[in-house]
């Protein structure tokens, strides 16, 4: 195959891979990169092979200018919008170049644009798919560079090919369905002359291509480059805490929930597949991973005040929160270790105490829990205290112990950790958590239909008709109304024609369309409980996650965001089945009114091949994020430098310790009956040290003389056993020395063959050394066969080379200039 064709195909593949990397980075905006990929392959056939579509340089420059103007208006926006605009511009310019006749200039421009596409793609997305795509991209880039080098050098040494190459730049303004007959110059040569492997290229280059040696060499270079890159990436010291995930990716995407959210926020979050955190639950002590049958709730924050005008929930106006350090748990209950690794490419929101953390609740300290984690026991919110380390971003990972109460009523109760005797807390519970908003004039009830439904449900409690229903019974009846009895439907998209704009969205949801996502269900249940004087608040966080059977963890993503309800049960309203002494301050009772039609985010593996592949890919994605994207100075020190120091340096610390050596000498001398004093100078020790050094110097000199005497004899005796490349071709360098002594010096610009040919020509012109002309020709041929052909000399051939060298040595000795005593 022609070198040009190989180069054209390789450059088109390079452009296609760059476009695919952009497609991975842009996610949902990947139509244009895929079209550019198709254009790259079409250009090989339409432009390079058939020559049907060829853009002249002037027309291509005009098209590029139009592309720049077309992309100019996309630059006004957020950072990610600007990068996408740059990606589009790179694609436009790339397509324009692909449909031009290929010259050195065009190849360089395509290579540079492809590299810029990789840079932009890295800023948009650094997932494992991006990393895997870099491997074929690097191999293709190395192949393109090798082919481009051969193509350029062939043009440099062949004037006809150079003229044909330059003539390509002067085609008509636009060529479509051009004639297949090649254009010719005045000498009759084709203007589209090709660099063929059997034609203009030297024979050695043609053999390289036809035998596939070049591609094998490219593969070796790619593997070596990959290994060297990995070593440099992990070994080169980082001098700050920045990681790749902070510099690129999602531009600081926010996750979690702030101290206020609107009813429309959750629907947008639930449509995102973005990774938030990885959670592993394991037994304390044994470390055995627990895979719960239920979906765990990872609490974020709690909201208590609803504003009808803005349709927004906020934390509330409690002045005195109970903030405490996370302490170790007390005995008498089973606990599991909860290890959470966060996505550093995202920003967790902040609380008054610091960065918001997600966790099952209540949480207690393990042996590795950071002392900076604090617990707002009033709101049930965990935070990383606001210091220098947590000022910008959440911790990479943290550990907490949580009670293991997977099922039953006991598992839905959380002890209230704020003293009930506190007046501020009682006011928070009795007023904030039971307040039902009024209309904008504060005159009429805002939720008449919701109140009516709540009253009916409070009376519809099965059991003893003579007794007043308990708060737990009312709460469970209302929860069951949403999940089973009320014909409610879970949906992220509420049809506009079903909503009544004159009603509050929560009222409209309960009375009319009965369709919404989890935040609607939680808001409605909280307000319905408040109408019955049952304190309630909305809790937001994450529920479940995709359980990975390979890594044995829950991968929690944005789509697992969830909202549920907590109602406060004072000690006298606790269910009779629980022990009152376990809840001296009452308890928070978790209620989840979202119906079962909500898609379960906890994907349990069914054992199919596809599930296994997906688990492996997700595990690889998280490994890539932890060990590549999030690699900063702290992780490098902890994961690379410290293990190497512990395993390689510490075992030899005794060999490098001054105190250890001093003690060794003291013990040795003491065993000989010589005891050193603790003074800073000792005459005996000084004399002893000088004698030891003198003995070491004598031993060194003796060894050096022995090696210098034995090495030439050993090399002469055993050198033929292990011949190396330099040894096999060493006769040529000896040949150059002999010729130099006879007056022939090789210039640095001469090749070995050119030098020998000059020596032979000089011998013939001067009629000297005629007997060494034939040996010189034979020796240079043997040298080239060994050096470039990989030939290994047989013993008989080695003997022949030795005879030739002896003949040349005799002739050069005779031709050496005579030296006198006086010059």
Verbal overview:
The protein is an alpha+beta fold and 823 residues long. Among the domains are: 3-180 and 193-235, no CATH class; 667-718; 725-815, no CATH class. It has 26 helices and 23 strands. The strands form 7 sheets. The protein has a 5-stranded antiparallel sheet with strand order 15-10-5-21-20, covered by helices on one side. A 5-stranded antiparallel sheet has the order 6-19-22-23-16, covered by helices on one side. Strands 9-13-14-12 form a 4-stranded antiparallel sheet, with no helix packed on it. α15 links the parallel β17 (489-490) and β18. This is Transglutaminase-like domain-containing protein.
Strand content: 5-15%
Helix content range of the residues, please? Answer: 40-55%
Q: Which stretches of 5+ consecutive residues score pLDDT under 50?
A: 176-193, 195-200, 247-252, 722-727, 819-823
Side by side, the strands of the main sheet go 15-10-5-21-20
Rg is: 40 Å
* SSE class: alpha+beta
Largest sheet geometry: 5 strands, antiparallel
**Overall number of strands:** 23
The shape, in one word, is flat
Work out the helix count: 26
Average predicted local confidence, pLDDT: 80
Terminal Cα span: 64 Å
Keywords: Membrane, Transmembrane, Transmembrane helix
InterPro entries: Bact_TGase-like, Papain-like_cys_pep_sf, TgpA-like_C, TgpA_N, Transglutaminase-like
Protein name: Transglutaminase-like domain-containing protein
